[in-house]
Amino acid sequence: NAGVMQNPRHLVRRRGQEARLRCSPMKGHSHVYWYRQLPEEGLKFMVYLQKENIIDESGMPKERFSAEFPKEGPSILRIQQVVRGDSAAYFCASRGQNLNTEAFFGQGTRLTVV
Amino acid sequence: DQQVKQNSPSLSVQEGRISILNCDYTNSMFDYFLWYKKYPAEGPTFLISISSIKDKNEDGRFTVFLNKSAKHLSLHIVPSQPGDSAVYFCAASKAGTALIFGKGTTLSVSS
Fold first, then answer.
1. B45 and A105: CB-CB below 8 Å?
2. A–B: how many Cβ contacts below 8 A?
3. Are B73 and B50 within 8 A, CB to CB?
4. How many angstroms separate the CA atoms of A49 and A31, rounded?
5. A111 in helix, strand or coil?
6. Are A110 and A9 in contact, with CB atoms under 8 Å apart?
7. Rounded-to-integer distance, Cα A52 and Cα A56, Å
8. How does DSSP assign A34-80, residue by residue?
9. Cis bond leading into B40, ω under 30°?
């Protein structure tokens, strides 16, 4: 049973470009969460999605950031017109139907904006 | 507003001794608590969890204690091993919502 898969592991973008981060949850998991870790900081919640639905996006910046989890395919976190402050590690986690269980994390995508 | 707080950024312990990592929370609606361990350049890995209906959960060298009245939980590692050196994150959730994490405590276990 493959774990949570994130790609790419490393992504370099110039200021103003778009960044697309992908997350395939564990098999059978339909709940996906995105977190951001800035240098020397903890894991900050961004968005919680189920298939085709955004459940909670209270942690998502209002502009330039969007997320989706389509019926088929991975969840995508999209950052438009990236700025240097977007440089961080972005982690995806997934959970099964029983929501009082642990979430499993991917290895993360390290985004560097130059 | 930080709902989950880990007030000690770092902890140093000698091999074989007990490590105690602490975590406080402010939201009384949280009903599920977890500890994760994280190595550099890797994703967090789940260690142990506890439901709000319990006050203790044990798994090998790891024990989590929950004090609901104080809104406090702690992770005990005994005996500590050098391989335990990592960043430990406390997390909490309510009724199936997203996990809310603290800022982490860096544990260093020296041999």
1. yes
2. 54
3. yes
4. 6
5. strand
6. yes
7. 13
8. EEEE-TT--EEEEEEEETTEEEE-TTS-SSSEEEE--SSS-EEEEE-
9. no
Distance of CA B20 to the CA centre of its chain: 9
Distance (Å, whole) CA A25 – CA A3: 7
Contact: A91, B43; criterion CB under 8 Å = yes
Query: What is the per-residue DSSP string for B29-78?
Result: T--EEEEEEE-TTS--EEEEEEETT-SEEEETTEEEEEETTTTEEEEEES
Beta bridge partners of A91: A35
Vertex B56 angle, CA B53 and B62, to 5°: 140
pLDDT band at A39 (very low <50, low <70, confident <90, very high): confident
Closest alpha carbon within chain A to B49 = A102
Confidence (pLDDT) at A40: 76
Query: How far is it, in rounded angstroms, from Cα B109 to Cα A49?
Result: 38
Q: DSSP 3-state assignment of A93? A: strand
Amino acid at A8: P
Phi-psi sector, A39: left (phi>0), alpha (psi -120 to 50), beta: beta
Which pLDDT band, with edges at 50, 70 and 90, does B2 fall under?
A: confident
Interface contact A42-B104, CB threshold 8 A: yes
Scanning the structure block, which residue is given the tokens 């007990």? B18
- pLDDT of the residue at B83: 96
